[in-house]
Design brief:
This protein has about 375 residues and is an all-alpha fold. Helices cover about 35% and strands about 5% of the residues. α2 crosses α8. It binds heme C (2 copies). One heme C binds next to α14.
């Protein structure tokens, strides 16, 4: 009895449990309301690959987050059911478990909240509603039993939260660290990366100040500050429309005329769509740079093809065809950097050192971190 009371107090005070860390990564936080178990992860993996959760039974999560492509689709913007194109590039799901928010604009708070949205998104998987998702499960010959066992419930009580939890638990196994960079930086293995990559790390910290947004902490490095910044990418698409709206209404750019901007241009508003703050206009979440070599093309709109193009973009302060477009919201750190050719190739060499050897095998890992039933796996 006393034991249970203690547990309840601990549960109320603590929202997360932690698992042991991988080299270069912080400990993974597991929500106490959704503990890991091998069975739940297996169920999540099955859901992730099941095309029946799309309106035409042709698209699964894995279509756009393909393990053979470092959990991306290598397309500038993703194609969902019936070749419908979304407006944004599919980020890798590897290490998404560490992010403070999900999506380029952070509109989902966690993996559980994120995971049902693609199924209902008309451009992605296009299911009518949550009932349609549950109908697929209940009609299947083995899902009802599998859910019942994993969550210790009657099949009649399966709801969308269980689907979200299983998907999130699977995604919490998709983590990778221990890159050559990690062995150099955190274990002082001087042979792990090239001289060029070492010089690139210094450029990353100093002359280019990339690390002010793609941050490193003491003991681990996720290469993101989990904040939102306008670095100019895609902004030209809305700049003209915004200025025209203001001109027509003979006003300064205001919240009201920005909110009137809709349709194809709306996704370019970025974090503004969530916060409604003018400062967040065209701001997107700083992405991690782990395994970056394996996830082209780059940026929220997939507009840059190679890491060399990314470095050129930053080096010119976001210029296109030699001209920096007018952008009153751009972060002041995005300005011409005057890097030499050597510094530019060193930066690229550094970014290539962030590839984990096991990046394409993360979902074959047998051990499920944080599994309470099988503590020997942790
Ligand atoms: C049609 C392609 C497509 C499908 C199918 C798809 N996604 Fe995505 N996914 C994307 C795109 C594009 C984004 C970025 C969208 C945005 O930020 O507005 C994204 C974002 C995410 C993110 C956020 C990652 C981050 O770094 O912010 C996660 C997690 C994710 N998807 C998981 C899933 C899961 C789970 C499923 C299946 C239920 C799924 N996706 C199905 C294309 C897809
Ligand atoms: C002001 C903060 C900031 C600084 C400084 C910064 N970045 Fe970024 N970086 C971002 C944001 C935000 C994005 C996503 C922008 C978008 O898609 O609109 C990004 C995107 C990227 C991407 C593409 C990632 C992907 O998955 O598509 C790479 C690569 C990158 N940055 C490398 C660098 C390098 C190298 C530097 C230094 C030269 C640098 N960044 C400086 C904030 C920053």
């Amino acid at each position: 009895m006393r034991f249970f009371v203690c547990l309840a107090i601990i549960c109320c005070g603590l929202v997360w449990a932690e698992t042991e860390a991988v080299l270069g990564l912080p400990p993974l936080e597991i929500p106490l309301l959704n503990p890991q178990s091998s069975e739940k992860v297996a169920l999540g993996k099955r859901l992730f690959h099941d095309k029946r959760f799309s309106a035409n039974s042709k698209v699964s999560c894995a279509t756009c987050h393909d393990s053979a492509k470092a959990f991306t689709d290598h397309a500038p913007v993703s194609e969902g059911i019936g070749q419908l194109k979304g407006a944004r590039n599919a980020p890798s799901v590897i290490n998404a478990a560490f992010a403070k928010t999900q999506f380029w604009d952070g509109r989902a708070a966690d993996l559980e909240a994120q995971s049902i949205q693609p199924m209902l998104n008309p451009l992605e998987m296009g299911m009518n509603d949550e009932q349609a998702v549950l109908a697929v499960i209940l009609k299947d010959s083995s899902y009802p039993q599998q859910f019942a066992e994993v969550f210790d419930i009657e099949p009649a009580n399966i709801d969308i939260e269980h689907v979200a939890k299983a998907l999130a638990s699977y995604e919490r196994t998709l983590i990778s660290g221990n890159s050559p960079f990690d062995r150099y930086y955190f274990e002082n293995d001087q042979q792990a990366i090239s001289q060029s990559a070492k010089r690139g790390l210094s450029v990353f910290f100093n002359s280019a100040a990339c690390a002010s947004c793609h941050t490193l902490d003491s003991g681990f490095a996720l290469f993101t500050d989990d904040e939102f910044h306008n670095i100019g990418v895609g902004y030209h698409r809305i700049a003209v429309v915004l200025e025209k709206l203001a001109y027509q209404q003979k006003t300064e750019l205001s919240l009201a005329n920005i909110q009137a901007l809709s349709g194809d241009n709306a996704p370019e508003l970025g974090r503004f769509l969530v916060s409604q703050r003018l400062l967040d206009l065209g701001a997107f979440k700083t992405p991690t740079l782990r395994n970056i070599e394996k996830t082209p093309p780059y940026m929220h709109d997939g507009s840059l093809q190679t890491l060399e193009e990314v470095v050129d973009y930053y080096n010119t302060g976001g210029a296109m065809d030699g001209i920096r477009p007018e952008n009153r919201f751009i972060d002041p750190r995005i300005r011409p950097l005057h890097l030499t050719d050597q510094q530019k190739s060193d930066l690229v060499a550094f970014m290539r050192s962030l590839t984990s050897p096991q990046y394409d095998k993360v979902d074959t890992v047998q051990a499920v971190r944080g599994d309470k039933e099988n503590p020997e796996l942790n």
